[in-house]
């Protein structure tokens, strides 16, 4: 069984998020989605514009239900980007360019614990119409909308 780890803030569940999550479900039989806590979010740029955990979780569940994946997903709140990576049943981790170092650190931690290394799947950025990546920060700044269109 392929059990994929995927994590993020998933604020606004934009086009890039949806593609990231789709890749996890194409790869995996089951997906553990680690959703950042409000405490973790408070350290991000423009954190005051980020929806709270409950809103982000509800939007994520709605998307998963629409895609028919809710029964294959486990969504948990995380306070750090590493601890859930030590679950022995995990086989793969899906990351973005920005978080590949976290996956490397998780694999180092797994090695120390005698666990099998996770296969790291790095997902390319989804591009906005202007050719730059779709990102939460660009959306919060008002540069693009959640589909990557200029504002």
Which key terms come to mind for this protein?
151 residues; alpha/beta; Rossmann fold; five-stranded parallel sheet; 5 helices
> Which series of helices and strands comes N to C?
EHEHHEEHEH
The largest sheet is:
5 strands, parallel
Number of helices: 5
Q: Helices and strands: which structural class?
A: alpha/beta
Query: In which order are the strands of the major sheet placed?
Result: 3-2-1-4-5
Q: What is the straight-line distance between the termini?
A: 43 Å
The Cα radius of gyration reads 15 Å
What's the CATH class label? Alpha Beta
CATH topology: Rossmann fold
Shape, please? globular
CATH architecture: 3-Layer(aba) Sandwich
| DSSP, total strands | 5
By CATH, the superfamily comes out as HUPs
Q: Helices and strands in order, then pairings?
A:
Layout: E1 3-8, H1 15-27, E2 30-36, H2 38-41, H3 53-67, E3 73-78, E4 92-96, H4 100-112, E5 119-123, H5 136-140
Parallel strand pairs: 1-2, 1-4, 2-3, 4-5
Descriptive overview:
- This protein is of the alpha/beta class.
- It has a single domain, classed as Rossmann fold (3-Layer(aba) Sandwich).
- It has helices spanning 15-27, 38-41, 53-67, 100-112, 136-140; strands spanning 3-8, 30-36, 73-78, 92-96, 119-123.
- It starts with a strand and ends in an 11-residue tail after the last helix.
- The mean pLDDT is 95.
